[in-house]
């Protein structure tokens, strides 16, 4: 295995260290895990084509480009909504009251 030196700002190195520690990994192992698990655009397209073939063969449904675009828009919208709110549904702003959000989550869980 060859060593590779990658120059990054101190803040990036520090963040990598925190992320690696949270997973009980070294920075090297964290970067290796990322490189092995992240798909290239070509790999994503291959997997999408495989999924379309599977859906067609097993369910008799042809997924059009328009269908894919609509689904991707829905996923993107959901992702942006999730990033705009916390897990509690409270808007993530500097002024957000996390104590209230936690109480609301507990109340919802208890009511269920």
Q: What is the approximate shape?
A: elongated
Helix amount = 55-70%
> Uncertain regions: pLDDT < 50 for 5+ in a row?
92-109
The mean pLDDT is 82
Largest sheet: none
Rg result: 21 Å
Total of helices: 5
Termini gap: 53 Å
Number of domains: 2
Give the class from helix and strand content and strand pairing. mainly alpha
**Total beta strands:** 0
- Helix-strand pattern: HHHHH
Beta-strand content bin: under 5%
Structure description:
The protein has 112 residues and is mainly α. The chain folds into two domains: 1-38, Arc Repressor Mutant; 47-90. It is built from five helices and no strands. It has helices at 10-22, 27-37, 41-59, 65-84, 98-111.
Give a nutshell description of this structure.
The protein has about 110 residues and is mostly helical.
List keywords for this structure.
112 residues, Arc Repressor Mutant, 5 helices, 0% strand
Secondary-structure blueprint:
Elements: H1 10-22, H2 27-37, H3 41-59, H4 65-84, H5 98-111
């Amino acid at each position: 295995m060859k060593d590779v030196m990658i120059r990054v700002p101190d803040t990036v190195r520090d963040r990598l260290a925190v992320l690696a520690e949270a997973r009980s990994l070294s920075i090297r192992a964290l970067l290796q895990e990322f490189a092995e698990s992240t798909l290239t655009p070509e790999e994503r397209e291959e997997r999408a084509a495989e999924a379309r073939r599977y859906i067609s063969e097993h369910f008799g449904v042809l997924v059009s480009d328009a269908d894919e675009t609509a689904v991707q828009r829905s996923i993107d919208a959901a992702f942006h909504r999730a990033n705009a709110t916390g897990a509690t549904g409270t808007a993530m702003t500097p002024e957000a009251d996390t104590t209230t959000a936690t109480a609301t989550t507990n109340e919802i869980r208890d009511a269920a």
